[in-house]
Amino acid sequence: MIPILAFLFSIIVLPAAASAAVSVGNEAISRISLDGTSNFVVVDTNNPANKDGTLATFTYYATQSNKFRFLLVDADSRVKWISELITPAAAGVNTYSPAASIEVKKGWNLGVHFLNNGMIPYALTGATAKFTNSDDGLPVLGNTIQYQGYASRTYSIGAASAKPAEPATTTPEVGNATTTDTGLPPIATVLAGKKLCLAGQWADIVGTSFKNQGQCVSYYNQQILGHIENLMKRIIELQKQLLEIQKKSK
Length: 250
Fold this sequence. Notes:
- By secondary structure, the chain is of the alpha+beta class.
- It contains 3 helices and 12 strands.
- It has 2 domains: 2-19 and 165-249, no CATH class; 23-160, Jelly Rolls, CATH 2.60.120.
- The protein has helices spanning 2-18, 187-198, 213-249, and strands at 23-25, 40-44, 53-55, 57-62, 68-73, 79-82, 92-96, 102-104, 109-114, 122-131, 149-155, 157-160.
- A 6-stranded antiparallel beta sheet has the order 6-5-9-2-10-11, with no helix packed on it. The chain has a 4-stranded antiparallel beta sheet with strand order 1-12-4-7, with no helix packed on it.
- α2 (187-198) runs antiparallel to α3 (213-249).
């Protein structure tokens, strides 16, 4: 019984440690302030990249459809990557997925170049944000940004890694999966959903509306616990049946 419990517990605990996503930046939520200048760069330093890896999905909160670019800078403020020009699809939480995953190193920070007035909100708290003057323009890839101002801010931008799709398979629609006779989705579907959460793809799961990665992981952990509870009940029933068989055989 103990080895079985240990294995089932590892389903919940081990993937989170082994499959932690690469991430940088903050949660894409509505915040109170907006920048009033244009054609400038701001770099948020609250949550630098947590480890080396690649980034596949960028999230941001937009208040309007002004165009902008994401950029990544290293610890010395050298520009390591600049995105194409992005136009928000609508007000609220948006995502941007480049054609290929973007390499990132631990300690790099995420920034934005606003072509027009800033449309990504920020809070007047957190680590130091670094920004250039209005009309300083788009920095050159590989160059060091010359900042002109510093302030405590938390911008609604972030990015995370995603595992590459396995060949000859399709991503299951885990949000709309058919339930089993226990009232839970099949365990394979639940585990697939949790893998997507840990890979930073929580916003892309069909039929769900998770607000963040933690909520997504918690949801699937509860379903895993439900499966474990049902399995333990079944094991207890089988033990009782085995005892009855042993009694009758004596």
